UniProtKB/TrEMBL annotation, chain B:
Membrane topology listed for this record: Multi-pass membrane protein
Highest taxon listed in the record's lineage: Bacteria
Family annotation (Pfam families): Proton_antipo_M
Protein name as catalogued: Proton-conducting transporter membrane subunit
InterPro entries in the record: CPA3_Na-H_Antiporter_D, NADH_UbQ_OxRdtase, ND/Mrp_TM
Family recorded in the similarity comment: Belongs to the CPA3 antiporters (TC 2.A.63) subunit D family.
TM region positions: 6-25, 32-49, 69-96, 108-127, 133-152, 164-185, 205-230, 242-266, 272-292, 299-318, 324-348, 369-393, 405-423, 455-475
Keywords: Cell membrane, Membrane, Transmembrane, Transmembrane helix
Primary subcellular site in the record, as a coarse category: membrane
Domain NADH:quinone oxidoreductase/Mrp antiporter transmembrane residues, every copy: 129-418
Location(s) in or outside the cell: Cell membrane; Membrane
TrEMBL record, chain C:
Gene: mnhG
UniProt keywords, alphabetically: Membrane, Transmembrane, Transmembrane helix
Organism classification: Bacteria, Pseudomonadati, Bacteroidota, Cytophagia, Cytophagales
Pfam family membership, one: PhaG_MnhG_YufB
Transmembrane intervals: 6-25, 37-56, 62-84
Presence of the UniProt keyword Transmembrane helix in the record: yes
Name under which the protein is recorded: Monovalent cation/H(+) antiporter subunit G
TrEMBL record, chain F:
Lineage top rank: taxon: Bacteria
Main localization category: membrane
Organism: Belliella kenyensis
Annotated NADH-Ubiquinone oxidoreductase (complex I) chain 5 N-terminal domain residues: 63-108
Location of this chain's protein in the cell: Cell membrane; Membrane
Protein name, entry field: Monovalent cation/H+ antiporter subunit A
UniProtKB/TrEMBL annotation, chain G:
The keyword Metal-binding appears for this protein: no
Protein name per Swiss-Prot or TrEMBL: Na+/H+ antiporter subunit C
Subcellular location as annotated: Cell membrane
Bilayer-spanning residue ranges: 6-21, 28-50, 75-95
Recorded family membership: Belongs to the CPA3 antiporters (TC 2.A.63) subunit C family.
Cited Pfam families: Oxidored_q2
Keyword line: Cell membrane, Membrane, Transmembrane, Transmembrane helix
Superkingdom in the source lineage: Bacteria
Length: 136, 507, 121, 159, 91, 768, 118
């Protein structure tokens, strides 16, 4: 499958798609999107890249095992969810910065939570697809 | 009363898993973490139990969104008891695993998954939201899928196909039930549903939804005629995994049945009779299956089915006494079944097989182990005053009160078959002369293990045996507890008040 | 003015898509179907998207529409190339009236490498 | 190299601004930072491209392409809506002057995007492009139309 | 006829009918490749429908779905192409 | 008191830890425990003789009315003394009998456990506690019968005994619980005050029946008797202690104990008389035909138990008195005979009475004991047995219309028993000593003194009945017969019919002994008789049950996944259909429905076709592609109906699923159609039926009003309280964020699962 | 439209079950997917459908006021979809592994773990 055309196209598609996925992640609180879809799109970007360039290339590109994103993402989600416990509030209570940040809007624990979701979804999808590709 | 910390068992378990994932290939670190964290986990569960026992029902409204709008967690006596039992069983299995699970499996996420599974169990017990219960169930089943297949041996995979199919089917039915329930009542909070469902005029529909829940949870709790996946699969994974399955997984289904059918759907006459008939058939099928088997773990698997029938019977009779019996049995069964599967692991390490026809001579060669294993075995057989005995008294009396003669007959039959099977097992495995078995090259026998691993396998069994002795001999404590739980279930006003506050007063 | 543009763009877009649809059914072999559809559809969708951009008349939306069109221009031909190549490979026959087939015998059956026929030049 | 990187970075930031639709400095800076990070992650070898003197040629190329696109579409459309098939299809080998990955890919994609033709594959040694075409009156003429049309104009931009 | 009606009564049905026609190709095949091409075209046409629908319901947010489709629709095609080649190699 | 009862358990618990000690000289110290207990209970004798009773109460499960309530009265003390007294002797006997045995420690462990359980049983006032001890005796018996567990027969007998007594025990439990429920208490003394209420209750029959089953199984009554001969596989001290003197009498104890509470009714009496008399006659005849000393004694024990049941069944004051006395009589002589059998077996290595003879020449004290016991058994004056027999005949003769029949049955039984006693107690010791036995030596005194003591007591009590009259017999009688007349027992009543019967019995028995010579051929003839014996029937039933189990299990657990699925779905469908049919009226409110548009119809149509295509396609790739189309149409429907987030997610996931499928299934085998047409049609019908049910249900729910409280709350507070405008996303990350947290965990687990499933290959060499 | 959706839901359930009753493992998985989709559609429909009014608060508004689609079922379905994705991927891989080990796609040949004697 390593055709020249596909390879070249994928080289350009990868950053585009990842960029787009971050966009989808960040605006999820206001418009359709969010961590899931964002994560799925980002992982699809890498999947396309791996189809075109071979798995090794993609792995070199990512530099670490995508599975590593899973505990990291879980950790982020967990921390953003559990932070309120330290001030005797319930799990998942929203904590917000006072003022909105440009581009992103209001920043609060929900956003971090969504970012955790985003990372987990990338980690999961890539782990699954890469593992399958490796053991074909 | 509100208490944000009642989710600690869940969160701590998640934390443990995440921590373990960071030590992916470092098995010894994983072992250490597992031991420490499982002990802490029992500590947390004990704390929670104590809090609830002293202060009554505690709730946590996730995100501080008041019920029914957010996801509510409710720690009542029933759920905290289950959490405590889960933590204890989990600790036993965790420690046992440090000794018995081979490194290859540990390098592929065994411990994180095990802890995820425990997290799922804690969550399922504590949640007060029906859809949240669904997602916890999903955690439980996916984690169990992974555990049942980890290692990927032929029998494991074959068993897993059935296990996975049935569980996915159950999930689909459960989800269907939730869909319809939401379509009817517009709520997901179980306490709120309790009120909403009671007000629905179209009782026919409510009854239909109840059937869906019954079958969905029934598959998970392995009742007749929905139990097939269990004997097909529970004996295939490593014993530590069977232990957590045998001890805890089907009980979640029972927990859910008890919860749903006391809080949301109060069984009408048809459903009550149906439950009784199913309980009888479950007892019969499990007992009959068990007497035929020669593989120790398959015997235990069928006995799980048989004893689920006892618990179902309590729900079918639907009096405080009968439910108390079911709860008592549930408590006993979790500890004892876990222990028996662990014991089967120990026996496997000693002899290299679990076929009772090939086994033998254990009593002669390992008298202390034999006596140790005898405790859970005879507890299961219901030899008084061991833990399996008490519940039967309540169930039988509960049956009399409602004139369920057939059920009493089946309880006697089931008890007898259990007794017989256990006696046969004892005679075959422990009494019969040992046969020379060929040494298996891929088995590291008990005597070849390092002392740490040996102790890691024996200590949990001692611990659980001690617990089951406690349940039997200090039955008073457990009876008082079960009685309180049953009372809470039968009359859920306290639950409703705790979750909904003033709202429950003015429906 | 905007409205007129919307009418024109959407109509022509729909027509191209319809053409592609008819084409995919009518064309006698796979390669012709690919040929007909990839572009007609791309063009048609591009036009419809532009009509949407005109309708909303908002820079942000226009930018997004442009982005979609660029994405499509980037991906559609790649897809066509991939499936065409794979089909040739798996022996999907060309229409019986086809004139030339320079590709014949150029694929190495084992390695899937494509020869140019001009290796020695 | 640094310049290319910077340009790609800039380009991506602009795309970011475009898709988010918020034309503000902060958004641009955010997009810039984000794409900088991405480029750092996805370091691939890109040839040096001289963007600015190519712009006019690019514009004229776009118009040429649109013209070709519409022309060919009408041709195909006619074939589609009339019952008879007028086409004379086949797969033609087209020798390539284009050398870089980008050139070849762009060429192949453009050929595909025009109705009636479709790039099937590039040979392993990048010397020829195999194209499926619907209307091959004369093979040589067809090859030269591609080479003098799309390829020449494309190479003018990229080189 | 307002632009709304035009889109609703002319364009959308046209696109829908196109989809139906394309679906016919999907059903008759005959080869897997034909179906894949049809599937690809179905998705592409879907983008058009979404665009029109976003005008109709005055929801520009729907265009984002179109964007996602445009980005990843071809992945299915790629996957099937990948499959066809793999199968070829294994046979 | 509780200490006295539980001390046996403590000792049993200690045995594994002091095993070295026990196997050494320590065993000689063990009889101290039963002896101490004997003395302890003996100390109560005087007060009890004076009509006092003692109560001890210890809390255990107060919330359910279960406690260690002990009640020491005549009946209890008789048994307690028997248990501890015979226990002392058996403990002592064992020190020699099993001297140096490798598992002596275990043996003593079980024995002490048994003793404690038995004591608990007879002393418990709480019927649940009583039952608990009851079951513990069964379990101790199981371990003791299977003590020689290398022997398959031993194991089989243990299992059989446990099956019968265990099953009986469960019925007894049911009976006890029912009794407690009806009577409102588990305390026997409290129940006693409810006696008339219970007897008139509709469930009385159930209570009695259930308790009977428990008592009959334990006390080896016909037709449950057959486990007892098998139980003789246990070492002789066990046979002596459990299977003749104490445990088998638990059923008798129970019946005697419950007589004042439940007795006196026609059901009670008739059943007991019938079962008791059948048992006594049946087993007595059997005992005549045996040649193994233990076999003889086993059947004669069954017969004696039958007599006791029979006597209790008669229910007259005379018969109950006879029963009370006979318990003691029987314990004394039967224990002796068993112990002697053990000595004979121990010394000669055989128990075959056709082989044994003349042993008195070498084992004189043993022979004396045996002779005494045989005479007491024979009911010869002046032995205690004579008094016992007299009382029996007195009781039968006084029993109204049936006196004649019952007396004849009693005579026949006694004749046979007498014969059996002579066979076991006299035959081995008289006559010429076979040459191979000449070198025998008298065993250690700890073996022959205990039987001598027991046999001696049989004589002493016979000569001086006043010794036991006031202290034991009277209190026992008072426990069974409330407000009964004072009893008086004596050896000599003068010449009367009873004496005549006694003499007749003696004469007939001796004649029989003279005529009939035991032989193995006779014995083997009787084995044919076994064909219709209850044991055979039981075995046939066992086989049938096993076959049924096999059928049932094979029917459901048949290994075919699709059968499992079809069973489950069939079950669900039937229930749903029934419930729908029962309570739902189909009704559609067309006004509430949304209008149809062409594009929706086309999308829906496409979806339907895609589903059908997925199901019926013959290539799995095509099926996957159709699945893709279906997912995509769902995505469009989500879009049309205001769910952009869903549309996005569905689309992405759909694409990924297709990729997964495609990656995975290219090397799977051909997509075959395995099922026959008939099966497909059956499945099709079920599926369509189920689908229709869901559809009807959906329609029905749609016409119900929906409570929108939650959704309104979300709509109103999403921005104001949670600072987000996409309400769905706000729900996902805030309102119901916990779901999402769990859900990503599900994903993580799935990924790990896939990873391990594909990558983990256990090497067969690596050790587990 | 609800009526058509009802038919579709019924069809999804029916076909899902029909596929689960086949002997082929791949069909089994497809059946499970169909069933899952059926359940999702059911939640969607029973949350009552509304055309063209996504539950997104207008950039100028502070809350949803007019008629809008119920966001709760959507959130539930989203969760369910993602969960099913995880489960389905696992199931697909399981089937692959099963085939590799047993060399058959026929479920009827996978019944050794149910045998009484083993
Ligand atoms: Na073209
Ligand atoms: Na969610």
């Amino acid at each position: 499958m390593k055709t020249l055309i596909f390879k070249t196209a994928s080289t350009y598609l990868l950053p585009l798609l990842v960029l787009f996925s971050v966009f989808i992640l960040l605006r999820g609180h206001y418009l359709p999107g969010g961590g899931f879809v964002g994560g799925l799109i980002a992982s699809i970007a890498f999947v396309i890249h791996s189809f075109a360039n071979g798995l090794e290339q993609t792995k070199n590109l990512i530099k670490f095992h995508p599975g590593f994103l899973m505990p990291v993402g879980l950790c982020i989600a967990l921390i953003s969810g559990a932070a309120p416990l330290f001030i005797e509030q319930s799990f998942m209570t929203g904590l917000w910065f006072e003022n909105p940040i440009p581009v992103i809007g209001m920043v609060g624990s929900a956003l971090f939570f969504d970012a955790g979701v985003y990372l987990v979804v990338i980690g999961v999808t890539l782990t699954i697809i890469f593992t399958i590709s490796e053991t074909l | 009363m509100n208490n944000p910390y009642i989710v600690l068992p869940v969160i701590f378990q998640l934390l443990t898993s995440v921590l373990l994932m960071f030590f992916w290939y470092r098995v010894n670190a994983q072992r250490l973490i597992t031991i420490i964290c499982s002990i802490i986990s029992v500590g947390i569960a004990t704390w929670l139990f104590k809090e609830v026992y002293q202060n009554g029902i505690l709730t946590m409204q996730a995100g501080e969104w008041q019920a029914p709008f957010g996801i509510t967690f409710v720690a009542d006596l029933f759920s905290t008891t289950m959490v405590l039992l889960t933590a204890i069983s989990g600790m036993a299995v965790g420690i046992f695993s440090t000794g018995s699970i081979r490194n290859a499996r540990l390098k592929f996420g065994y411990f994180p998954i095990l802890n995820f599974l425990l997290m799922g169990l804690h969550g399922a017990f504590l949640t007060g939201d029906i859809f949240n219960l669904y997602v916890w169930f999903e955690i439980i089943i996916i984690a169990s899928f992974v555990l049942i297949t980890i290692g990927g041996e032929k029998a494991q995979i074959e068993g897993a196909i059935k296990y996975v199919t049935m569980n996915l089917l159950a999930s689909a039915i459960f989800l269907t039930a939730i869909a319809i329930l939401y379509g009817l009542a517009g709520s997901l909070n179980m306490a709120d549903l309790s009120i909403q469902v009671a007000e629905i005029e179209n009782r026919g529909l409510v009854n239909v939804v109840a059937i869906l829940f019954l079958v969905g949870f029934g598959i998970k709790s392995a009742i007749f005629p929905l139990y097939f996946w269990l004997p097909a699969s529970y004996h295939t994974p490593p014993p530590a995994i069977s232990a957590v399955f045998g001890g805890l997984l089907t009980k979640v289904g029972v927990y859910a049945l008890l919860r749903i059918f006391t809080l949301i759907f109060i069984p009408d006459e048809f459903l009550g009779n149906l439950l009784i008939v199913l309980a009888c058939m479950t007892i019969l099928s499990g007992g009959l299956g068990a007497i035929l088997q020669v593989n120790m773990r398959k015997i235990f698997s069928y006995l799980i089915v048989c004893h689920i029938g006892f618990m179902l019977a309590g729900l079918g009779i639907y009096t405080e006494l009968a439910i108390m019996g079911a709860i008592f049995y549930l408590i006993h069964d979790i500890i004892v079944k876990t222990n028996l599967f662990l014991a089967s692991g120990l026996i496997f390490k000693l002899k290299g097989t679990l076929n009772i026809e090939k086994l033998g001579g254990l009593y002669k060669k390992y008298p202390k182990f034999s006596l140790l294993i005898a405790i859970p075995l005879f507890s299961l057989a219901g030899i008084p005053p061991l833990s399996g005995f008490w519940a039967k008294v309540f169930l039988i009396e509960g049956g009399y009160k409602e004139n369920e003669w057939m059920l009493i007959g089946f309880i006697i039959l089931g008890s007898f078959l259990t007794l017989w099977v256990i006696a046969k097992l004892w005679s075959e495995v422990f009494w019969k002369d040992a046969v020379d078995l060929p040494k298996k090259i891929n088995v590291k026998y008990f005597h070849e293990l390092k002392p740490f691993k040996r102790w890691a396998m024996v200590i949990p069994i001692i611990l659980l045996a001690g617990t089951s002795l406690y349940i039997g001999l200090a039955a008073e404590h457990i009876i008082v507890l079960s009685k309180q739980i049953a009372a809470e279930l039968i009359n859920p006003t306290a639950y409703l008040d705790a979750v909904l506050g003033i709202k429950s007063q003015t429906p | 003015m905007t409205e007129l543009l919307v009418y024109i763009l959407s109509t022509s877009g729909a027509v191209f898509i319809l053409l592609a649809a008819v084409g995919i059914v009518k064309m006698p072999d796979l390669y012709l179907r690919i040929s007909v559809t990839t572009k007609a559809a791309t063009l048609g969708i591009g036009l419809i998207l532009l009509s949407a951009a005109c309708y909303f008349n908002d820079t942000a939306i226009t930018a997004r529409v442009v982005a979609i069109i660029i994405f499509m221009l980037l991906t559609a031909p790649v897809g066509a190339h991939m499936i065409g190549r794979a089909s040739y490979f798996t022996g999907v026959k060309m229409w019986k009236k086809s004139k030339v087939d320079d590709l014949k015998g150029m694929y190495d059956k084992k390695t899937h490498k494509l020869k140019s026929g001009e290796e020695n030049q | 190299m640094i310049k290319t990187k910077f340009l790609s970075n800039l380009l991506l930031s602009l795309i970011w601004v475009a898709i988010t639709g918020a034309f503000t400095v902060e958004n641009f800076l955010f997009g810039f930072a984000l794409s900088f990070f991405l480029l750092w992650v996805s370091a691939t070898d890109r040839r040096d491209n001289k963007y600015f003197n190519r712009i006019p040629k690019l514009v004229s190329f776009i118009f040429f392409f649109l013209y070709e696109l519409i022309k060919a579409n009408i041709q195909v459309a006619y074939d589609v809506i009339t019952p008879r098939h007028y086409m004379e299809p086949g797969i033609v080998k087209i020798p390539l002057d284009a050398e870089s990955d980008l050139e070849i890919t762009l060429l192949a994609n453009l050929i595909t995007l025009t109705p009636g033709t479709c790039s099937l594959d590039v040979s392993e040694d990048r010397k020829v492009l195999y194209v499926h075409a619907m209307y091959i009156k004369d093979k040589e003429e067809f090859i030269s139309s591609i080479k003098n049309g799309f390829e020449r104009k494309l190479l003018e931009i990229t080189r | 006829m307002s632009i709304y009606d035009y889109l609703y009564y002319i364009i959308l049905p046209t696109l829908s009918i196109s989809i139906l026609i394309i679906f016919v190709r999907f059903l008759i095949g005959p080869k897997l490749s034909d179906r894949v091409v049809a599937l690809d075209l179905l998705l592409t046409t879907g983008i058009g429908i979404i665009a029109v629908y976003s005008i109709l319901s005055d929801q520009p947010a729907f265009l984002d779905i179109a964007m996602i489709m445009a980005l990843i629709a071809f992945l299915g095609t790629v996957a099937f192409a990948y499959y066809l080649e793999k199968r070829e190699r294994n046979d | 008191m509780i200490l006295a009862i539980l001390s046996g358990f403590v000792l049993a618990g200690c045995t594994p830890f002091i095993s070295k000690f026990i196997k050494g000289k320590g065993s000689l110290l063990l009889p101290i425990l039963p002896f101490g207990l004997f003395v302890y209970f003996f100390s109560f004798l005087k007060e009890i003789g004076e009509g006092q009773t003692f109560r001890f109460n210890y809390d255990w499960v107060p919330s359910y009315g279960i406690n260690f309530g002990f009640h020491l009265d005549g009946l209890a003390i008789l048994f307690a003394l028997l248990i501890t007294g015979v226990g002392t002797l058996v403990f002592t006997y064992t020190t020699s009998y099993l001297k140096g045995h490798h598992y002596l420690d275990r043996f003593y462990g079980y024995l002490s456990m048994f003793m404690a359980s038995m004591l608990g049983l007879v002393l418990s006032d709480n019927i649940i506690t009583l039952f608990i001890f009851w079951e513990l005796t069964s379990i101790s018996s199981f371990f003791l019968i299977g003590f020689n567990n290398d022997d398959p027969k031993s194991r089989k007998s243990a299992l059989l005994a446990l099956s019968i007594t265990g099953l009986g025990g469960l019925f007894l439990l049911a009976g006890m619980v029912l009794l407690g429920y009806i009577g409102g208490s588990y305390q026997f003394q409290e129940l006693l005050s409810q006696s008339t209420f219970i007897k008139e209750h509709t469930s009385y029959g159930w209570i009695v029946g259930l308790i009977f089953i428990g008592a009959f199984t334990k006390s080896a009554q016909f037709p449950f008797h057959f486990w007892l001969p098998g139980a003789m596989k246990a070492p002789t001290p066990v046979s002596t202690y459990l299977h003749s003197a104490t445990m088998v009498k638990a059923g008798i104890y129970l019946l005697a104990r419950f007589t004042p509470l439940l007795g006196g009714s026609a059901e009670w009496n008739t059943t007991l008389i019938l079962v008791g008399s059948i048992t006594m006659v049946y087993a007595a005849i059997h005992s005549v035909l045996r040649i193994d000393m233990k076999g003889i004694l086993a059947y004669s024990t069954i017969s004696a138990l039958g007599i006791l049941v029979f006597l209790i069944g008669l229910g007259t004051e005379a018969s109950l008195l006879a029963a009370g006395v006979f318990i003691l009589v029987h314990a004394l002589y039967k224990a002796t005979l068993f112990l002697i059998t053990g000595i004979v077996d121990h010394e000669t290595g055989t128990r075959d009475v056709t082989v044994l003879s003349g042993l008195s020449k070498v084992l004189m004290p043993v022979a004396i004991a045996a002779g005494l016991a045989a005479l007491s058994n024979a009911g010869a004056p002046p032995f205690f047995g004579f008094i016992g027999k007299d009382l029996i005949y007195e009781a039968t003769l006084a029993y109204g219309d049936w006196a004649m029949v019952l007396t004849i049955a009693a005579v026949v039984t006694n004749v046979c028993l007498l014969f059996a006693g002579l066979l076991a107690g006299v035959k081995p010791f008289v006559g010429s000593l076979p040459s191979n036995f000449t070198s025998l030596h008298l065993p250690h005194p700890t073996m022959w003194i205990p039987p001598l003591i027991l046999a001696g007591l049989g004589l002493v009590f016979g000569l001086f009945p006043s010794l036991v009259e006031g202290l034991i017999v009277q209190p026992v009688f008072s426990s069974m017969v409330i407000d009964g007349a004072p009893v008086h027992i004596k050896l000599w009543h003068g010449f009367n019919l009873v004496l005549g019967l006694s003499l007749l019995t003696l004469t007939l028995g001796v004649i029989l002994y003279m005529i009939v010579k035991p032989s193995s051929s006779l014995f083997s003839k009787t084995l044919k008789f076994e064909m219709i014996a209850p044991q055979t029937l039981f075995e046939i039933f066992g086989k049938f049950f096993n076959a049924f189990a096999r059928f049932w299990t094979g029917l459901f657990q048949n290994g075919y996944l699709r059968n499992y699925v079809i069973t489950i779905l069939g079950f669900l469908t039937i229930l749903l259909a029934y419930r729908l049919y029962q309570g739902v009226n189909l009704y559609i409110d067309t006004k509430q429905l949304t209008a149809l548009t062409i594009y929706e119809v086309i999308v829906a149509l496409m979806m339907i076709v895609a589903i059908v295509f997925t199901v019926f396609s013959r290539s799995r790739l095509v099926a996957v592609a159709s699945l893709g189309v279906m997912g995509y149409t769902i995505c469009l429907i989500f879009l049309f109906y205001s769910a952009p987030d869903l549309a996005m997610t569905q689309f992405s996931i759909d694409t990924l699923t297709v990729i997964l499928f495609v990656l995975v299934i290219y090397n799977l085998p051909k997509y075959k159609n395995f099922s026959s047409k008939a099966v497909r049609i059956r499945d099709g019908i079920l599926s369509v039926f189920f689908g229709s049910l869901i559809a009807i249900l959906t329609l029905e729910v749609l016409s119900e009003p929906l409570n929108r409280e939650t959704s309104i709350f979300y709509a109103e507070s999403a921005y104001l309280l949670a600072k987000g405008k996409n309400v769905v996303n706000v729900i996902l990350v805030d309102f119901r964020g916990f779901d999402t947290m769990v859900e990503i965990t599900v994903l993580v687990i799935a990924a790990i699962g896939v990873f391990s499933l594909l990558k983990l290959r256990l090497k067969s060499i690596e050790k587990e | 439209m609800e009526l058509i959706l009802v038919v579709i839901i019924g069809l999804l359930y029916a076909s899902g079950i029909y596929m689960m009753l086949r002997r082929s493992m791949v069909k089994l998985i497809i059946g499970l997917i169909l069933l899952g989709n059926g359940a999702n559609m059911l939640i969607f429909l029973l949350g009552r459908i509304v055309k063209g009014k996504p539950p997104i608060i207008d950039s100028t508004a502070k809350m949803l006021t007019e008629i809008y689609a119920d966001p709760v079922p959507q959130a539930l379905i989203l969760t369910a979809i993602v969960i099913s994705f995880g489960l389905q991927s696992f199931a697909i891989i399981l089937v692959k592994r099963a085939y590799k080990i047993t060399q058959t796609d026929d479920l009827d040949e996978l019944n050794t773990t149910d045998e009484i004697y083993e």
